[in-house]
Design brief:
The protein is mainly β and about 220 residues long. It is built from 1 helix and 12 strands; from the N terminus they run H-E-E-E-E-E-E-E-E-E-E-E-E. Strand 9 and strand 10 form a beta hairpin.
């Protein structure tokens, strides 16, 4: 009896080990870096440094921007998409709708229509070193976006972020101009930081923008 029980235990143990070996490995494709559920919002604080050659001034402007994923619809290819409503608020005034963009998230990429230009924001799976033409579907010159790094553990405006990536959109500098655009995406949060430089070095004009996430959730209260 004891021998039979011993053999049964061995059989069960081997069966479990076999199941473990054959069990599919779950691969993190990085979809959580771009949540776009309906009614999901992200609130940002923005600081613009504006160089005005004509007026010979350098102005610093701070304000808030909130992005809200709203109406769900199917695009011309039948893919589920969402409207992305962007509101702006300055100096204690009321929220003003500034843009209506669209967002389409597929199994392989994220497309976001900004100012009538379709930009590939991310590709899946998300990996450090990934490169793609961010303007593949836009009427713009080809631009190689790249996931520069994948980092862990940071805090932005009191929001704990376990994992985030930095995506370099472009970085060009010469005697005529300086152009930089970098975006950071936090897991389960989406875009957490935008850094933009667009300067005409000959005229000393242009803008430097920093946009940091301030709050996030569902059903934003205006």
């Amino acid at each position: 009896m004891k021998k039979a029980l011993y053999l049964l235990v061995i059989f069960i143990s081997l069966s479990c080990n076999k199941d473990d070996v054959n069990a599919p490995t779950l691969i993190d494709l990085g979809y959580e870096y771009y949540p776009n559920n309906e009614d999901y919002y992200r609130l940002y604080e923005v600081k613009d440094i504006i160089y005005n050659d004509f007026a010979q001034t350098i102005d610093t402007i701070t304000y808030e921007v909130v992005e809200v994923f709203t109406n769900t619809f199917n695009d011309l290819e039948g893919r589920e998409s969402r409207e992305l409503h962007r509101y702006e608020k300055r100096n204690g005034t009321n929220w003003v709708l500034k843009d209506v963009w669209t967002s389409t998230k597929t199994q392989t990429r994220v497309e976001q229509v900004e100012e009538n230009q379709r930009v590939v924001k991310l590709t899946f799976p998300v990996r450090a070193g990934n490169e793609w033409n961010g303007y593949a579907f836009a009427d713009l010159p080809e631009e190689d976006f790249e996931v520069h790094s994948l980092k862990t553990d940071t805090v932005v405006n009191g929001i704990s972020i376990n994992e985030f990536i930095e995506v370099l959109n472009y970085e060009d500098e010469n005697i005529l101009e300086r152009r930089i655009k970098k975006e950071k995406y936090g897991k389960t949060l989406g875009l957490i930081h935008l850094y933009l430089v667009d300067l005409d070095l000959q005229k000393d004009s242009g803008i430097i923008r920093n946009m940091w996430i301030k709050d996030t959730g569902f059903n934003f209260s205006f």
